[in-house]
Amino acid sequence: MKLDPARSTPAGYWRFSAEYFLAAQAVQAKSHKLLAPTLQLYGQALELALKAFLLKRGVTLAQVEGMRHRLADILKFSRNRRLGTEVKLTANDIALINLLSENYAKHRFRYIVTGSTRVPEPRYIAALCERVIAGLERYCTGYLWGISRRGA
Length: 152
Prior knowledge:
Layout: H1 10-30, H2 35-56, H3 61-66, H4 71-80, H5 91-104, H6 122-141
């Protein structure tokens, strides 16, 4: 699918990010046994929020889309583009995103892979995800309505 840079805006990416976040919360609230779908949705929300930030920073749509689902790389690139001016991340936050990325980037939340793996606790990713999305809202959209209003 070819994306149109005139129609793929930071605000649009941010809006989808907020919607994936709300979907993850709904799945998590329904059942704590749905670990893979919950983490997949939180990963998608974080990916889109960071990509919204990068687009707003002037990174081209082609560059942003070329990063695919590699959360750790997207985070590093975002931090190099001064993500910290909008959202402060702790060393623990960065470690959580990198841990999520280990499985998210390889689609292990979408396709069955046998064997053991390490995954972050969804409640920690949820809090981090909400903080990142909320922290980028005004910067990426120009508005500050709050994530919770997106679900209304």
